[in-house]
Amino acid sequence: MDGKVKKQRKHQQKHSGPKAEKKKLRKQGPSTEEDERRRNPKAFSVQSAVRMAKTFHRAQDIKAKKHHIPLVDRTPLEPPPVVIVVMGPPKVGKTTLIRCLIKNFTRQKLADICGPVTIVSGKKRRLTFIECTNDINTMIDLAKVADLVLMLIDASFGFEMETFEFLNICQVHGFPRIMGVLTHLDAFKNNKTLRKTKKNLKHRFWTEVYQGAKLFYLSGMVYGEYQTQEVKNLGRFISVMKFRPLVWQTSHPYVLVDRMEDLTDPEKVRTEPKCDRTVSLYGYLRGTYLKNKSHIHIAGVGDYQVSEVNFLPDPCSLPDTQKKRALNEKERLLYAPMAGVGGVVYDKDAVYVDLPASHVKQQQEEVRPTTELVQSLLDTHATLDAKMAASKVSLFSGSATLNSDELVEHERLQEETVWDQQNGRSRRKVVFNDSQDQASGSSEEEDEEEDKEQDEEQDEDDDHLNRFLRQTREGSGPPHKKQKVEQPPSELPVFADSEDELEKSEEDSEKDSEEDSEEEEDPGEEGDSEEEEDPDEEEDSEEEDKEEGSEEEGSEEEQGALCWKESLQQKASEAFLRQQEAAPNLRKLVYGTVVEAAGVQNENEEDEELGGLFRVSRPQNNKRLQADALDCSRFHPNGTHDWDSQEVLDSIRDCFVTGKWEHSEDAATLLKEDDELYGDFEDLETGEVHKKQNVEDQEQMESNSEAENEEQLLVQTDEEEQRKKRLEKKRRLKERFDSEYDDGEATYLDDLKEEMQKQAELNRAEFETMDDETRVQYEGFRPGMYVRLEISSLPCEFVTNFDPHYAIILGGLSSSEGNVGYLQMRLKKHRWYDRILKTRDPLILSLGWRRFQTIPLYHIEDHNGRHRLLKYTPQHMHCGASIWGPVTPQGTGFLALQSVAGTKANFRIAATGVILDVDKSVTIVKKLKLLGYPYKIFKNTCFVKGMFNTVLEVAKFEGASIRSVSGVRGQIKKALSTPPGAFRATFEDRLLMSDIVFLRSWYPVTVPQLYNAVTNLLLPVGQKDSWAGMRTLGQLKHDLGIRNKPNTDSLYKPVLRAPRLFNKLHIPKELQKALPFKSKPKQQVPKGKTPRDLQRPGVIREPHERKVMALLQALGTIHNYKTKKAKTVKHAKHKEFLQQKNQQEEAKSKRQRELRKKLYKAMGQTEKKTARSSLKGNTED
Amino acid sequence: MASQGLVYDGCNFFRQRLVLSTLSGKRVKIKNIRSRDDEPGLRDFEASFIRLLDKVTNGSRIEINQTGTVLFYQPGLLYGGSIEHECNPQRSIGYYLEALLLLAPFMKTPLQATLKGVTNDPTDPTVDLLKLTSIPLMKKFGIDGEGLDLKVVKRGMAPGGGGEIVFKCPVRRTIKPVQLTDPGKIKRIRGIAYSVRVSPQMGNRIVESARSVLNQFLPDIYIYTDHMKGTHSGKSPGFGLTLVAETLSGTFLSAEMSSTPQGKGDPVLPENIGKNCAKLLLDEIYRGGCVDSSNQSLALLLMTLGQPDVSKVLLGPLSPYTIEFLRHIRDFFQIMFKIEVQKPLEDERKGGDKTLMTCVGVGYSNINKTLK
């Protein structure tokens, strides 16, 4: 108004008071559930008990679904490298990715990726990369051993069939971790399409693997490699990934072979190029323990028995535990013998030098001094058998040790570095020895520890002797000369023979009556072992000694050089005494000397006689006696005690509850401890206060009573003892507390988990302290070891057609999996396979480790448990299938293919399923209908022929139910003598001669015994994906151009129907008479044509007559018209008239009605009036 | 399929070999069976055993040469089910039952075997002993439940026989690993003094004499007298005693003794049987362990066939039969046991040396059991 802007008052926010408080509360965030509950308790009250029960039930269900059956954690301390399978369709960038990852982890470039490549990726993890070729055989094999699959997908193209096939293979054989990697993303120019494609591919991938499966994007290439940062990220993901244990993998040992050597005698190969080969295969053992001499399956080759297994020093070992973040350059190892990394490889008894082809040619032309080393090395290779026999070969005049540490060092080096090392190596003497593994050298320290544990007295002595020997030799031998000591086998030490003698003599004197049959040491064997060791003793190694020395320094015995001598006699006597009273070394007693000889000793005469099938550890001398003795499990100890004497009786007093208890369990001590804990208490009834007595006092008191405990108590006054006691007390209290408060919550699952945990700990701890050599005897080779498996009698094609691009997988088989039997499985045709499968068409199955061709029979179970044969698999349903194949545990999944040769556009996996049952016989039946024809019919009895051929056949079916086509049921009664095979049968009704009688029965079907392993690894290089087995009938016919001659009866023909003729209906005369007229056959014949004689001739008119007729007709027509018209007019008029009349009628009736209404009204009123007047009259009165 | 076989000499440990062969699926050939004997070849009881094995398996192949000195056995699959077998009276039912105990948990269908023959004789572990010791041992390995049962229907003494037992056993897919290292203290002693076709007083006499020995250790002793009459008493007279000591941790140690079969050696007094049997039990207690000497092989086998976990069991001294069994286990399953001797402490009065057997199971799973 006056132009002045009036200043508005600003809103004053309250900072204190109830309003502000309220606001603050509201601002503090959304109120918690508790709040809501408090504010609106009705909404949270129980509305319906049923509903609440349901929600609770559901919640529990969801909770329980998350539980898994707890398994014992059996992963070894040093796990084998993780197998990473890189798969994908061709030209998608698999090799590039591996190369990039290797470069990322090891900073090395690997030119050619063939075979598995093992690298150290971190302090606790090693990786083995392997590329999966595009052959379905390889895909199947690798899916079985993969821990992680990197699934490469060409994003510019989209998904290819291989990807889906591989996913389905994985599903069947246990689902390993799968990570998708999208490549070729630089092909997209448009950013939007790129995003869209990524999203689409991701979602499709998720439906196949699981929602949220990791998908990596490799965006583009830089100088032919993926971008460093992306590869680094991928590498990080890989190195922290956790893996799930797969059932098949954890229950079977397996080796992904990364190296192969042919050990066959070259001379034999020269003379007989097709001879069976002895091959040694190397790789990390995975899965579970592998036993020596066990059965294995080489995927793509067949089943073999391992003739020998050894473990070798780890060529790609994890770094020693150091407290630092990253690995240094030296620890980033790379091991890929098939790809030519690790040019020199050391075996247990040989050294292999990998030479490029050019070198070999040169050497053939002329032996140059530079290649001399190689030449000599090759020589060693050539005379392998000789070397094995001699157990050592010296390459050069000088000698040198090969320490295992050094071995590893060499393997790390590239080929060039090998040549740098030439000088160093030329000084050394390479020692080959049959009897002892190289590995034992490295684990010698452990060896000794283990030995001590085994039998202290023997080995301690032995140690002393060894040390002495070494020391003396050290003094005498030239200091510069490097020598190698062969650690004597743990069981039979160098000087053990003397002791064994002792032992034996004692045994003879004391125990022979009891265990004479079990004595293991026969002089022959001892002699052998001695001989074996003799050469070993001559070669002592300085380095070993140094190690020994350093170890000894800590020990007390190492005081003076001759210290051992003093104790020797004492120890011997001690040992003597001990053996007099105790049992001899039980292991030797039970298993004989095999323990140390198992890996070493080759067949002696007897073993050869048995074809290497088994090794008898039984002594030879009284074998005959024992062999036919009484087979009885009863134990008759001869040295029975005299149970009448009190001393003997006393020796078992403590075995009874009445005897003395251990300190920890004794009721008296337990009570006392309880007193200590809860000593103070007040008796409420009497008001007496019990004070805790001093521990010492109490013990003093007790000591008075128990004289025998006096000594102990004196010791217990010690400070140390008291502290211990206090700790013990505390522990006891804590245990009690735990048991009270934790056990209430513990469920069955928790208990189970705890049990498993305990078992796992025990598993780890039990053999931890042993050295590998001994441990292997007990456990078998444990996963994580680098093993060498020698297999004899492999087909020569395995070696000659060897292709490193194809993975060799050795799958261990458990004891009964080597057999063949009938397998019953549940099978379903794959929903993406476009055809159904036919019974008796050969099918290639991938089951367990194996791939094989077999002939399945499909069947379905009827409601009564009968397995009825099916001709074809159902379209969308499971059915049973029976095959003849390798015995495999139930629950193992399998997949079926119709062919493995080549690549096809279609999806190749024909069916999947699971093994249900293993048996030696099958019970599949097919329906069989026997037909017969009646030839004589009585009332309900009938003679049938044509169903059987002999009386005997009929006799077998007596009493069987039969049926006619028309549905009349009957029974076979008895055979008739003529014609043969005819029988008498009774029916519920009379049959007709035209009836057919049939008998429904079931005929057992046999499963064809075809088991044909897919041996694609034996095929020539380049054709390995073209294995073709038995062809199906359809293929065979197609290939040979044979067409089926159809059954002529089954062909369609034009339908010709003869016209049907009916007889005249004849009604008897009597009946005719009785019939009503309507039904009587009419005598009158229908009017037919007039006979000729009755036909009248036609009239032909004259023209005049014609005119008259025409006129008459015209007149008639006019007349007709007129009358018609008049009629219509009249009709109309009449209608009008009727209408008028109606109207009048209506008016009249209306008037009458109104009149009547008025009249009734008047009448009603008068009536009312009268009624009212009468009422009034009454009231007035 | 390259399935190798094993070759053995002589008829000793005949059952072990066949049983292990059946379980491992490896073929076995036994040569020189009593080849130097006056009566070469297999005896009747061995033939009867083979027949029994054939009954419980499906698809086994057995070939015996004409003289019976060579046996080839290719095992089939363990089928189980309800079987009935007339055991040859040369050996008692214990001989057959011991093998069945080893096989029974690994069948396709639960076994229900009716064995007829000699239930008690002095050579083999009697049916009573197996019932009292083997069954509780099997329970420790997870083979338990309703189905596990051994019932003596009729008692038949050697040499006539005429006894009958029913053995039922459920099937298991896997066997639990066990840690039986603490035998515990003996809390009670039970026993059965049986007598057939002799005076019922015999039983009481046995009980009396056995108690006289055992009472110095434990008051909780009860020995049942089992006198069977009529059709349940078999064909020959005899009597005997089976004693079982039960510890706090559920270990059963046993001993037994029976009268000499009629017409085979000097008759013995029931008092002697009672006393000697009690002494045998003391001897067994002296040897100790968590498994008694007649069941050592059963325990070791179940350990071997367990999951690939460490199993431990404390045994007394190994019997020769067990030692051979260990060797056979190594032949068939490539499993070696770690054998450690545990010496008793200075002041302990718990009998002789014990043997701690440790092994890692082969991870055997019952391949016969059908998956539904």
UniProtKB/TrEMBL annotation, chain B:
Part of the small subunit (SSU) processome, composed of more than 70 proteins and the RNA chaperone small nucleolar RNA (snoRNA) U3. Interacts with BMS1. NCBIfam families: 18S_RNA_Rcl1p (TIGR03400). GO terms for molecular function: RNA endonuclease activity. GO terms for cellular component: nucleolus. Belongs to the RNA 3'-terminal cyclase family. Type 2 subfamily. The lineage of its organism: Eukaryota, Metazoa, Chordata, Craniata, Vertebrata. The keyword Nucleus applies. The keyword Ribosomal protein does not apply. CDD domains: RNA_Cyclase_Class_I. Residues 181-285 form the RNA 3'-terminal phosphate cyclase insert domain. PANTHER family: RNA 3' TERMINAL PHOSPHATE CYCLASE, RNA 3'-TERMINAL PHOSPHATE CYCLASE-LIKE PROTEIN. It is found in: Nucleus, Nucleolus. Its main location: nucleus. Residues 8-339 form the RNA 3'-terminal phosphate cyclase domain. Keywords: Nucleus, Ribosome biogenesis. InterPro entries: RNA3'-term_phos_cycl_insert, RNA3'_phos_cyclase_dom, RNA3'_phos_cyclase_dom_sf, RNA3'_term_phos_cyc, RNA3'_term_phos_cyc_type_2, RNA3'_term_phos_cycl-like_CS, RNA3'P_cycl/enolpyr_Trfase_a/b, RPTC_insert. As part of the small subunit (SSU) processome, it plays a role in 40S-ribosomal-subunit biogenesis in the early pre-rRNA processing steps at sites A0, A1 and A2 that are required for proper maturation of the 18S RNA. Activates BMS1 by promoting GDP/GTP exchange. Does not have cyclase activity. One of its GO terms (biological process) is ribosomal small subunit biogenesis. This is RNA 3'-terminal phosphate cyclase-like protein. It comes from the Eukaryota. It comes from Periophthalmus magnuspinnatus. Pfam families: RTC, RTC_insert.
